[in-house]
Amino acid sequence: MRIISGLYKSRKIIAPKNLPVRPTTDMAKESLFNIINNLYYFDEISVLDLFAGTGNISYEFASRGTESITSVDQNFGCIKFINQTAEAFDMPIQTIKSDVFKFLEKSKLQTNIIFADPPYDFSVEQFSRIPDLVFENNLLLEDGVLIVEHSKHTNLSDVRHFSYSKSYGGNMFSFFEITES
Q1: Is position 77 within any domain?
Q2: Which residues contact 31 (CB under 8 A, 6 or more apart)?
Q3: pLDDT average per 10 residues of sequence, the chain (181 residues)
Q4: Nearest residue to 15 via CA among 75, 67, 100
Q5: Which PANTHER family match (predicted)?
């Protein structure tokens, strides 16, 4: 994987082969960050990266100047790799080893962007729990957005707070925003 833009542009990061991950493709990541770039100033936001895996998305935010990044994953190897990489590049990434759903149930952390990249084989009900917990626990700041990455074969348009989705190859990003109920 490589960092697309910012301070560490073009830097390649090689993750251990034994991590149970599926990193976001460079093409999909570049498209996603073009959307985010039109919505926010990277140096003025806070980010929560759920199912962080290799830390691919967290590194991209850090490279673009985001100073408040929290990465959550339940796999110790993933957390260890993110910590080592963040330290090597002097990136402001805090890691939390936790089951994402348990973290969302208890967290009081509010951020501008929450990015979630759960396993693609989740059911719609499992995917739906993410926005349900984010919005029930008020984890987004005003004008914040939850972005859920999933397969193009999964349709989340009927999930509460769904706003829109964008498709890139086999990847899809669904955007969820605070709505008046």
Answers
A1: yes
A2: 166, 168
A3: 92 87 85 95 97 96 98 97 97 98 97 96 95 97 96 94 93 90 54
A4: 75
A5: METHYLTRANSFERASE (PTHR43542:SF1)
- Is residue 43 exposed (0-12), middle (13-18) or buried (19+ Cβ within 10 Å)? exposed
Q: What is the pLDDT of residue 181?
A: 54
pLDDT in tens, 112-153: 999 999 999 999 999 999 999 999 999 999 999 999 999 999
The answer to pTM > 0.85 is: yes
What angle is formed at CA 121 by the lines to CA 117 and CA 127, rounded to 5 degrees?
55
Residue 80 CA: distances (Å) to CA of 87, 99, 101, 164: 11, 15, 20, 34
Residue 22 placed within a domain: no
Q: Which range of residues forms the domain containing residue 117?
A: 27-177
The rounded distance, in Å, linking the Cα atoms of 19 and 54 is 8
Q: Is residue 57 part of a domain?
A: yes
Angstrom CA distances, 2 to 18, 130, 160, stand at: 19, 27, 34
Q: Does residue 6 belong to any structural domain of this protein? A: no
Report the C-alpha gap between 181 and 178 in whole angstroms.
9
| E strand or H helix that includes residue 145 | strand 140-151
Identify the CATH number of the domain in which residue 77 sits. 3.40.50.150
Total tally of structural domains belonging to the chain:
1
